[in-house]
Amino acid sequence: MTTTSDKNPRVALVTGAGSGIGRAVALALLQDGYRVVLAGRRPEPLDAMVEAATAAGQQALAVPTDVRDAQSVQALFDQTEQHFGRLDVVFNNAGVNAPAVPMDELPLDAWKDVIDTNLTGVFLCARAAFALMRRQNPQGGRIINNGSISAHAPRPFSSPYTASKHAVLGLTKCIALDGREFNIVCSQIDIGNALTELAERMTKGVRQANGSIAAEPMMDVQHVAEAVRYMAGLPLSTNVLNMTVMASQMPFVGRG
């Protein structure tokens, strides 16, 4: 059940909503009756989703946003509050990766782009969500961070991405702790090999820890959307602090 009443449907915000995991989650939440704010850098896919949602009798708001920029993030949450009056769920999904090269070949700008997007972007969105959830009435809400299996174990040549996701895990725990006083809960979903446009390359072969190149099993991105839908739908008295959703046979547990 996603509404307190038919007149007060819950509001969700999804970053990186224009494609991949973000798009799948946003569509699932719209189907559940949420009013959904769609954030992303490219306006065209966001506008197309709003048009489709409107045709289906759903409510969506597109807000082009760069999560690396504090002013852009603040504008996103200001528009959310102005348009819908409150915020119940945030899915911090926007993220990027860097070229898989030895550390000494990685440009500093590539490192900064990953950290600014995957870590600082999550912090900026969580900070703005925390402020809104703290002052709204009824108080509280749920922040869900898209971590990664890389929050627990790295791939070869992945230092910026892995560092950012380890940091998100720590940030998730801090938000979960600091939010108790204000009925704000925080969760993290760690995803392994969801088949999206960006991950399709992995079906053709990915470098393994032993130096070999091997294709890896994938899972339907809809299973990720279902997992986030479950986490989002829980009452604030209950939290899934951390969930791992993965292709069963991918090389993560043990030695692959």
Describe the structure.
- By secondary structure, the chain is an alpha/beta fold.
- It has a single domain (11-246), classed as Rossmann fold.
- The chain is 39% helix and 19% strand.
- The protein contains 6 helices and 11 strands.
- The chain has helices at residues 20-31, 43-55, 70-84, 108-135, 159-178, 221-233; strands spanning 11-15, 35-40, 60-64, 89-92, 141-146, 184-192, 194-195, 206-207, 213-214, 219-220, 242-246.
- The strands form 3 sheets. A 7-stranded parallel beta sheet has the order 3-2-1-4-5-6-11, sandwiched between helices. Strands 7-10 form a two-stranded parallel ribbon. A two-stranded antiparallel ribbon has the order 8-9.
- Helix 2 links the parallel strand 2 (35-40) and strand 3 (60-64).
- Helix 1 (20-31) packs across helix 6, helix 3 (70-84) packs parallel to helix 4 (108-135) and helix 4 (108-135) runs parallel beside helix 5 (159-178).
- It is globular.
- It starts with 10 loop residues before the first strand and ends in a 10-residue tail after the last strand.
Provide the fold topology.
Elements: E1 11-15, H1 20-31, E2 35-40, H2 43-55, E3 60-64, H3 70-84, E4 89-92, H4 108-135, E5 141-146, H5 159-178, E6 184-192, E7 194-195, E8 206-207, E9 213-214, E10 219-220, H6 221-233, E11 242-246
Parallel strand pairs: 1-2, 1-4, 2-3, 4-5, 5-6, 6-11, 7-10
Antiparallel strand pairs: 8-9
Helix pairs in contact: 1-6, 3-4, 4-5
